[in-house]
């Protein structure tokens, strides 16, 4: 198999990683991970003429101390950093390995430490945690930050099983299943990871027996307590947040699993757990296997933001079992996941909610495309990643344009037929990575069956190339707007400057309806006035809400109205939430109306933010923002 991922320097077409043992000590004092990786690589077929005398791995800001192959030290070199791919590590293989036959395996041990420049980890002091008792750390490897943890074939095109042996003075969770005490004890005796570490450490052992790409490697450690949220699920979080997290999730978690297992096929990973992180977690959720990592902003006390969990759970099939082979084809992960998420929500709350969520997504897609410009490469379904940092190309486009690719195919063949295709597709590619063309071929192959003879013409008429490569908005389907019309209607009334609002206007609304309403107001050509903004905030309870989705959407409206009464509230929110979905739009909006306050707020909170978030906001705020 050739090399199709532009975001890796690894020669994975020649040598391929099948198993990884990560023996790492979490050093909270030095704020580094250190230890060793033992990786097995097998010689790949059909690579005549390729140089097999070295294994090239991705690294970024790691300190490689020693490398050995099959027990013997070998020469290695970390090449200089040239672009977003980092600093490739070249490992010289002994002559015998270099000329080994296809299928031969070599075992590489790398002794390594992370550095202060690591982009995949955030370290929190006890003072930065909610109950202040212990430090906390967590990793976030997607898209190409695993290489900042340890040298690896950092590409979604390579999948490896993993053993984790993690030494820490505090409880650890990881993207593997916990191994029983007796086995863990044995491992501790066999591994030298504990030799050099303090007696306060415990060795936590996990196994991931389903092959996973590097971006799903995950760890977190700190004062973590757990509670049940279903027969296969626990929630883990700081002890003082545990009850609230359990309440938020326990109602929907079993239902989500039930619905999606019927839609696709039984859950393959054993447990599905959720780790609720400190507020600086930069995403809504991250689908790390066994433990989804989630922002605490989903704990809003009203169970109105838990659809994030339906999304991350869906990744257990789309993304984690069946993986896009490169970031160019990322829609296969996120577009499919949006589709499955919406199917779950519809099964639980009713079909109108499928369309409701899709309309919210459509608006986000319109905004993203307007932001990039309708002909920009990043508005295509397939996004070339040569020379590009995936974090820069990241947007709602693969999510929502990807959703529309899947939803278009569903409507074309009809839901009943498409529902037969879903398990077929996920079974066929389970444990593998694929690209958009392989997806196309799978779809065509399935609908070529005699039972679908009457669909022959419609299927033959699909303009795959157009769908894959045309920039801008895809064709817009007709949505059921039952839940949305009231939001549009209310927004329309606000066009009249003397509209008098009342709490009754939004009585009985779910949070997403307020978000649709606020999204409409954000889009007004003529912004609302300061007085209108104040009245809106008061009448609809938009400032006092615990729901950060609603609150931040209101602040964007209020800032656009230059409602000074909300500037400080915005700055305060920016000091308590680090989820980029909220942080980036709020900084951009604040920057437009009060740049000194935006810069001062960023300066004050820069150590609170995750390294990725910090880098993104620095880019968004431009000159003066990156003084450190
Ligand atoms: N895999 C993503 C998060 C991600 C994307 C991390 C790119 C790093 C790089 C995750 O599944 C996701 O999409 N989360 C969303 C929530 C969802 C409900 C759309 C988020 O973080 O907002
Ligand atoms: Zn996702």
Automatic annotation (TrEMBL):
InterPro entries: Aminopeptidase_N-like_N, Aminopeptidase_N-like_N_sf, ARM-type_fold, LTA4H_cat, M1_LTA-4_hydro/amino_C_sf, M1_LTA4H, Peptidase_M1, Peptidase_M1_C. Its cofactor is Zn(2+). The gene is LAP2. It comes from Sporothrix stenoceras. Its EC number is 3.3.2.6. SUPFAM superfamilies: ARM repeat (SSF48371), Leukotriene A4 hydrolase N-terminal domain (SSF63737), Metalloproteases ('zincins'), catalytic domain (SSF55486). GO terms for molecular function: aminopeptidase activity; leukotriene-A4 hydrolase activity. Pfam families: Leuk-A4-hydro_C, Peptidase_M1, Peptidase_M1_N. This is Leucyl aminopeptidase yscIV. Signal peptide: none annotated. It is found in: Cytoplasm. Belongs to the peptidase M1 family. Keywords: Aminopeptidase, Cytoplasm, Hydrolase, Metal-binding, Metalloprotease, Protease, Zinc. Residues 482-621 form the Peptidase M1 leukotriene A4 hydrolase/aminopeptidase C-terminal domain.
């Amino acid at each position: 198999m050739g090399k199709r991922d532009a975001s890796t320097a690894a020669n994975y077409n020649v040598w391929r990683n099948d198993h990884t043992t990560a023996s790492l000590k979490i050093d909270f004092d030095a704020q580094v991970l250190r230890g060793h990786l033992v990786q097995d690589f097998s010689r790949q077929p059909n690579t005549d003429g390729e140089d097999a005398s070295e294994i090239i791995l991705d690294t970024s800001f790691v300190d490689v101390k020693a490398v050995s192959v099959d027990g013997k030290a070998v020469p290695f070199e970390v090449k200089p950093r040239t672009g977003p791919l980092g600093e490739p590590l070249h490992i010289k293989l002994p002559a015998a390995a270099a000329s080994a036959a296809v299928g031969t395996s070599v075992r590489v041990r790398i002794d390594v430490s992370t550095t202060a420049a690591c982009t995949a980890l955030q370290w929190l002091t006890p003072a930065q945690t909610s109950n202040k008792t212990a430090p906390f750390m967590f990793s976030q490897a997607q898209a190409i930050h695993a290489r900042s943890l340890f040298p690896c074939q950092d590409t979604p095109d390579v999948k490896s099983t993993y053993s984790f042996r993690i030494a820490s003075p505090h409880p650890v969770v990881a993207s593997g299943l916990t191994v029983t005490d007796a086995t863990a004890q044995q491992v501790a005796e066999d591994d030298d990871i504990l030799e050099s570490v303090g007696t306060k450490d415990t060795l936590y052992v996990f196994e991931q027996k389903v092959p996973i790409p590097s971006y799903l490697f995950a760890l977190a450690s700190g004062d973590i307590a757990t509670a049940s949220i279903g027969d296969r699920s626990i929630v883990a979080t700081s002890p003082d947040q545990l009850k609230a997290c359990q309440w938020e999730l326990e109602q929907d978690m079993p239902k989500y699993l039930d619905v999606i297992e019927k839609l696709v096929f039984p859950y393959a990973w054993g447990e599905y757990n959720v780790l609720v992180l400190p507020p600086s977690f930069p995403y809504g959720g991250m689908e790390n296997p066994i433990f989804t990592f989630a922002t605490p902003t989903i704990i809003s006390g009203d169970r109105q933001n838990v659809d994030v969990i339906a999304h991350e759970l869906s990744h257990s099939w789309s993304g984690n079992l069946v993986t896009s082979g490169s970031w160019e084809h990322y829609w296969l992960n996120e577009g499919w996941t949006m589709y499955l998420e919406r199917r779950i929500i519809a099964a639980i709350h009713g079909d109108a909610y499928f369309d409701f969520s899709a309309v919210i997504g459509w608006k986000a897609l319109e905004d993203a495309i307007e932001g990039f410009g309708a002909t920009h490469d990043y508005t295509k379904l397939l996004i070339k990643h040569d020379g590009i940092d995936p974090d820069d190309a990241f947007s709602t486009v693969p999510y929502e344009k990807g959703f529309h690719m899947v939803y278009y195919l569903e409507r074309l063949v009809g839901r009943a037929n498409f529902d037969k295709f879903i398990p077929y597709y996920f079974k066929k590619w389970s444990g593998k990575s694929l690209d958009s063309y392989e997806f196309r071929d799978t779809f065509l192959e399935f609908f070529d069956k005699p039972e679908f003879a009457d669909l022959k013409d419609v299927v033959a008429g699909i303009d795959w190339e157009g769908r894959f490569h045309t920039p801008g908005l895809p064709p817009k389907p007709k949505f059921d707007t039952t839940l949305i019309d009231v939001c549009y209607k209310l927004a329309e009334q606000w066009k009249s400057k003397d509209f008098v609002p009342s709490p009754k206007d939004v009585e009985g609304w779910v949070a997403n309806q307020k978000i649709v309403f606020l999204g409409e107001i954000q889009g007004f050509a003529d912004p609302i006035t300061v007085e209108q903004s104040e009245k809106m905030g008061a009448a609809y309870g938009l400032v006092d809400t615990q729901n950060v989705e609603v609150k931040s959407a209101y602040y964007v409206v209020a800032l656009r109205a230059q409602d000074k009464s909300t500037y400080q509230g915005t700055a305060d929110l920016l000091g308590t939430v680090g989820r980029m979905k909220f942080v980036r739009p709020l900084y951009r909006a604040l920057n437009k109306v009060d740049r000194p306050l935006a810069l001062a707020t960023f300066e004050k909170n820069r150590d609170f933010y995750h390294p990725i978030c910090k880098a993104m906001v620095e880019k968004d705020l431009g000159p003066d923002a990156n003084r450190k």
